[in-house]
Every structure is written in C-alpha cells, then in structure tokens.
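Project outcomes to date are best conveyed with an example. Our students and postdoctoral researchers have been running inverse folding experiments weekly, and each run begins with a structure described purely in tokens. The record below, which covers 299 residues, was selected by the lab manager from last quarter's runs and is presented without edits.
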C-alpha cells in the first residue's frame, strides 16, 4: 500500500479533463481542509485506503450523469446514411461518463513508489427525448489507456510538480461510415498547490494504415495538447479543460462546477464549446449546456 506520508510529488490519476495527483508531507499551506491535506492529497489518501479491496472500484476520470443537456447544433450530417435518425434527433439529450482504473503493481516497478495503471473511460450521448426513434444512444466512446507514474522531489516556491506518461486508444465502436478512432501517446506535466491544480498534456498521434484511418484529419480539430485546471473553494469545485491546434486554430473548452447535494452525491453543471466533444463530432463545432449529478469529482 502506498503511503502519502512522504516528501514527494506524484501523479495518481490523469483526469479528464486529464489529471489528478499527488502526495507530500509539507502541509505549510493555508487553503487546505480540516484534515490538513490539499484536495489532491485527500483524494489520494481515500484511494489508497480502498485500492486493494476487491469489492471497491476506483474512479479514474470523473463519473457523472447529466439527465439533461442542450446543444445549439446537433450533428445531423454524420448520420446521412440513417435518415430516420437524422430527421428525428432532438437538441436535448442525456450524457453519461463512467471511468475506472486499476493498479497493475503494488510493489516498486522501476523506481521507488512508482505505479502502473490500466484505466477505462466510457462516454455516451443518449437521445432519451427522441420518442419518434425509440430514444437511441446517438454516440458512445470507449477509451482504454495504460499509464505510468513516478514520484519526483522537485518543488519550487512551495508549488509541487509532477509528471506522467501513457498511451491510449479511443474509439466509438461503430462500423463504416460512422466509425471513428485514434491512438495517442502522451506526456503530462503537473503543478499543484493547496486547492489549485494545473496540468498540460501534449500528445502524439500514433500512425495507422491510411486505408484503415476513419478520420485522418482528427488532429486538425482535436488539437495537439490539452490543458486542465481545478480549484476548490470550501465544498465547491471548479474545473476547466481546453484543447487546441495552433496550426488550424480549432479547439474545444469544457467548464464544470460541482457542489454538495446529499452525502456522496454532488450537483454538476457543465458547459462546453468547440470541436470534438465526441468522436462522431470531432469536426463539428457546437455549444452544450448540461446539468445533473457527479458521482465522483475529477480531483
């Protein structure tokens, strides 16, 4: 079992918005909760207490259910091969994300206190309000990933830094002409202090045969990197994520806020704008607003 009582900074999750983190034993900062831990350290402590329990599933990225979302531009063009769907899509739909991870080592692998994880994230966009077409799932995305994290003792101006590396596959599991997929290798750099965290995750797309590539221009819209941030004020948590391609100037932003409702359930409000909210929408720009429940925060 890993201990958080050490003077190191460590990535623990790469949350979806694409990060989460850390453990160290210098609690000199002012904006920490009553446990004396920052929000990143508190999550790490709770995960460590249960990660060897076979009856407990450990969250990876955020887990949430948005029973109601509304977009200003539902993507009908991608479904031209299915006119009944295309004509009956509603601008309102539900959105669901489930994300889990498991450690693949419990002892040191290459370095002291390092860790290797397998993570899996599934997202679905459910046309629950489209009664004319029996409320189908319009799109589902599946993202398995393998990532390695290792500690570092580097701190600067009381700020903590960390790093991680991983590979991931993302696919919507559809046949042509709706099939979309790509593979990436990424590096993450992280900064954290008290109840504020920031990460940047550049990636490289792994090449595949041109004949099998369903979306050769996906990087033009999905970008070359992702920047994420999180901030906790009392029991309210704010999140932000941005992707961009500096060559095409196309990108995506997602903003979120969670707040307590009852016990472990939290309210969640999400806003997004840009290209690539889902794989089928990778080259389609839209604005979306959603409200629902968060089962776990990203950090």
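After processing, the design step wrote out the following sequence:
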């Amino acid at each position: 079992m890993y201990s958080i009582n050490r003077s190191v900074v460590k990535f623990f999750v790469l949350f979806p918005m694409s990060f989460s983190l850390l453990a160290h034993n210098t609690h000199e900062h002012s904006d920490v909760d009553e446990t004396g831990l920052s929000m990143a350290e508190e999550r790490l402590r709770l995960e460590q207490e249960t990660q060897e329990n076979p009856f407990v599933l450990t969250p990876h990225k955020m887990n949430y259910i948005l029973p109601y979302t509304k977009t200003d531009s539902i993507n009908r063009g991608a479904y031209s091969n299915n006119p009944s769907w295309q004509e009956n899509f509603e601008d309102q739909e539900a959105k669901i994300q489930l994300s889990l991870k498991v450690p693949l080592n419990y002892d040191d692998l290459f370095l002291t206190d390092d860790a290797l994880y397998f993570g899996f994230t599934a997202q679905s966009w459910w046309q629950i309000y489209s009664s004319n077409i029996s409320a189908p799932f319009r799109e589902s995305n599946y993202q398995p990933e393998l990532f390695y994290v290792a500690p570092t003792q580097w701190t600067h101006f009381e700020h903590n830094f960390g790093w991680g590396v991983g590979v991931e596959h993302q696919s919507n599991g559809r046949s042509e002409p709706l099939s979309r997929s790509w593979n990436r290798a990424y590096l993450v750099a992280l900064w954290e202090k008290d109840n504020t965290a920031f990460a940047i995750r550049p990636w490289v797309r792994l090449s595949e045969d041109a004949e099998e590539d369903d979306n050769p221009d996906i990087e033009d819209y999905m970008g070359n990197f992702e920047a994420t941030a999180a901030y906790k004020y009392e029991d309210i948590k704010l999140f932000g994520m941005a992707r961009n391609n500096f060559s095409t100037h196309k990108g995506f932003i997602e903003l979120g806020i969670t707040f307590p409702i009852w016990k472990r359930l939290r309210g969640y409000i999400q806003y997004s704008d840009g290209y690539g909210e889902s794989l089928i929408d990778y080259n389609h720009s839209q604005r979306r607003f959603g409200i629902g429940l968060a089962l776990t925060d990203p950090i």
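The chain has one domain: 39-296. Residues 39-50 form the longest helix (12 residues). The training component of this project remains on track.
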